[in-house]
Amino acid sequence: MVDAVFDFNAEKSEFTSAQTLVLNGLLSEVYAYQTFTDVVITKFNEVAASPADPTVNSIDFSEWSSSISCSIPAVGSNGETLYPQKLFYTVWIEKDGLQTPYTFKADNYYGIEQDATEVPYSFNYNSRDGSHGIYFQDSVEECATWTKVGIQSIYYGGDECNKSAISWIDNPNASGISDIAADAKEGKYVIYNVAGQRMDAPRKGLNIINGRKVVVK
Length: 217
Description:
Elements: E1 7-9, E2 14-17, E3 21-24, E4 32-36, E5 39-42, E6 55-61, E7 66-71, E8 87-95, E9 98-101, E10 119-120, E11 125-126, E12 131-135, H1 140-143, E13 146-155, E14 162-163, E15 167-170, H2 177-184, E16 191-192, E17 198-199, E18 205-209, E19 212-216
Antiparallel strand pairs: 1-2, 2-5, 3-4, 6-7, 7-12, 8-9, 8-10, 8-13, 11-12, 13-14, 13-15, 16-17, 16-18, 18-19
C-alpha cells in the first residue's frame, strides 16, 4: 500500500488519480471495503437544493424484530450533489389516523446524544450497499398499532431547509383496535380485562388480547 497521489485541474476544479484507490478497513494489510479506478473527484460547491425522495425498501415487523430498510439518496431532486453532513432524515409513524415524527431516544440508540426526530444521514448507514437499516426499540404491541411507516429527507445546504416528500410503506402486521373488536366476534381474538373477565371488545386501559398486554388510550 502506498499514499494516494492526485493531480488537480484548477480550471475544472477536479482531482484525478491514475492509481487504484482502496477504502481499507485495516492499517497493516489490505481489507478492502470499496475499490475505485479512474478516479475523478470534483470540488464540492454547496447549493440549496430539495433532496430527492427516499425509498422504503422493506419492512419487517414481527414478534422478534421491528425494522425497516430504506435508501436515502445523497442527491437533490434535480441531480445536485448534497453535502452529507447537512443531510438528515425523519421517520414518520401513522397511528390512529395521525402522522407524527418518530422520536429516537438517546437512551436507546448509540450515537444519539439527545432525543431527536431528525437524525444525521450517517445514522444507521450501511456503507456496503448504501442503505439505512432502522430498528425500533418499541414493544411488539406498540408497533402493531402503526398502520404505516414513512421516511423523509431534510437538507440544510445553502443556508436553507428543504424537505423531500414522505415515502410510506404499509405495516402488514398492523392490528387496529377496531379490527380487533370486529375479529373478536368471530373468535379470532380472546380479550380479557385485568380482573380476568372475558370481554367482547377492547376497552380503555389495560387489556389482555390473545395472551398479550395491550393498552388502549
